[in-house]
Structure formats: C-alpha cells, structure tokens
Design a protein that fits this description.
Radius of gyration: 17 Å
Distance between the termini: 36 Å
Oligomer: single chain
Largest sheet: 4 strands, mixed
Shape: globular
Helix content: 10-25%
C-alpha cells in the first residue's frame, strides 16, 4: 500500500505507526471497495513472512488474536530482521513460528531454501535493504491517489538500479492502481524518440 509520493507508513489505522509525527494513519480505509478487498484477500494466502522489527512488533500484538481474517498468518513462518530482538524475547517466542534473523546472508539462505513463498509487508527499512541487495523478485503495489508528504517511503536512494516488468494490473472504482511487477534484468537506456 503506497501513496503517489511513495509513503507506506500507517495504512491500516490511526494508531498503527504514528512515529515521527505521522498523522495520516488509516489512509487506506476511505479508498477500499469490493474490488480492492478481493485483491487483498487473494494476497492473504498462506506464505512465510520476512518483516522488519517495527512491523513485526505491530503484527505480533494484533494477528495472534485475529488469525481468522488471514488464513495462515499465525501458522506461517515469520522471520524478523533485527539486531535488537533476541531469539528468546517473549515477543518472538509468544507468536508461533517466529524467528530472528540478523544479516543479509541469513535472508539469502531463507530465499534459497525450499519452502513457501517469502512475503514482505510494510517494513520500509527492510525493503530498502532488500532492494539495495537485489533480493526483490516481485513488487505487489497498491498505488493510492494521495500525496501524504512526509512519512516512511518505499523507495530511497540506496536501491540498486533494476528493471521490472508489469505482469498484472487493474484500477479500482476508487482509483487505486493495483500492479504486480516481476524482476526483469538490468535497466536499459537509449535516446528518447529514437527508432
């Protein structure tokens, strides 16, 4: 879930992530409709999850009690990239199938292992790290017709230059562009207008 200016912070509710004075929490709700909600339901298929520490902390406080809405969220493996959390922390041990990972090398091992698809939700700092290390195979974006100004951004200047191909898209009745992009090699350049 992303705004036109790249903000991904606090889409789910007013209190989700008010850090750094973010005051637009819950910006997704007014733009939801049946088309949007059906796409989200399809994306909530069972998977494994890679999350940043802040997103993990928000989720660990919510999803264990609301798993009926998201089949597999509590049984899927949840990896949290963190230097602060310990493997023995109650937050980690209290949410079934959760584990702490520390490095990009750990993430590469998980990606190379046989298992469920690895999904990342939110986690802006983690996404920056993944893009910097060319570890993003697909982007599933819901681009909302809003400019939010300041807030945590999906992309920053650390991203590795990379090409992506559009594999699926639709526009909801409320103007949200839902697009899926798959990694497609290197960035190609040329002269505008050249044939």
């Amino acid at each position: 879930m992303i705004s036109l200016d790249g903000v991904i912070q606090g889409p789910g509710g007013p209190k989700e992530d008010p850090s750094n004075g973010f005051k637009y929490g819950g910006w997704v709700a007014p733009l939801s409709d049946d088309v949007y909600n059906n796409v989200v339901k399809q994306e909530l298929t069972p998977a494994d999850y890679l999350l940043g520490r802040k997103t993990f902390q928000i989720w660990a406080g919510y999803w264990p009690q609301h798993g009926d809405f998201w089949p597999g969220i509590n049984t899927g493996m949840k990896y949290v990239l963190s230097k602060k959390l310990k493997k023995s922390d109650k937050l980690v041990t209290g949410w079934q199938n959760s584990a702490v990972v520390r490095t990009v090398a750990d993430i590469k091992k998980i990606k190379q292992s046989k298992g469920a698809d690895l999904h990342v939700w939110g986690s802006s700092e983690l996404i920056h790290l993944l893009l910097k290390n060319d570890l993003v195979d697909e982007l599933h974006l819901k681009i909302h017709p809003l400019i939010l100004g300041k807030g945590k951004k999906l992309f920053d200047n650390s991203s590795l230059a990379a090409a992506y191909a559009l594999t699926d898209s639709l526009v909801t009745p409320k103007g949200v562009i839902i697009a899926t992009y798959k990694r497609d090699g290197k960035v190609k350049t040329g002269n505008a207008g050249a044939q």
